Automatic annotation (TrEMBL), chains A, B:
InterPro entries: Cro/C1-type_HTH, Lambda_DNA-bd_dom_sf, TransReg_Diox_bact_type. PROSITE patterns: HTH_CROC1 (PS50943). It comes from the Bacteria. The lineage of its organism: Bacteria, Pseudomonadati, Bacteroidota, Flavobacteriia, Flavobacteriales. Transmembrane segments: none annotated. Residues 16-70 form the HTH cro/C1-type domain. It comes from Flavobacterium gyeonganense. The keyword Metal-binding does not apply. SUPFAM superfamilies: lambda repressor-like DNA-binding domains. Keywords: DNA-binding. This is Helix-turn-helix domain-containing protein.
């Protein structure tokens, strides 16, 4: 398999934004629920940062999904 | 949901080690296939580092699995 890392984090950001909006949360709301900054959420969603597994777990907890679901999206 | 971040990365490390061994790769072999150091693979497997999404993608590519499969394990 040869998935592009850059493409993957772009798609991850889009997927996290979709899950956040589905839950009716603002970036600030999600940030508050995760205990991270709104700026960090924003940068994850637009893929300007390469986030860590622990931050994924925080986001998954706040979105009421399992961490693996955050990585479950079709690659475009 | 309230998954412990620390517990999650411990289980992730165990899961990556299992997938690596299933593929018959040493830590050095996996490191070479990923373009990262053996020390980094070792530290991910024993959960002394909180790795990034891009590194997960490199490992998934080398193990011939999708990135989401790296996070697909029962939480203990």
């Amino acid at each position: 398999m040869n998935i592009s890392e850059e493409n993957f984090i772009v798609n991850l950001g889009i997927h996290i934004r979709q899950l956040r909006e589905k839950k009716g949360l603002s970036q600030q709301g999600l940030a508050d629920d995760c205990g991270i900054t709104k700026s960090q959420i924003s940068r994850i969603e637009v893929a300007t940062i390469n986030t860590t597994v622990k931050t994924l777990v925080k986001i998954a907890n706040a979105l009421d999904v399992e961490p693996k679901e955050l990585l479950d999206f079709p690659l475009k």
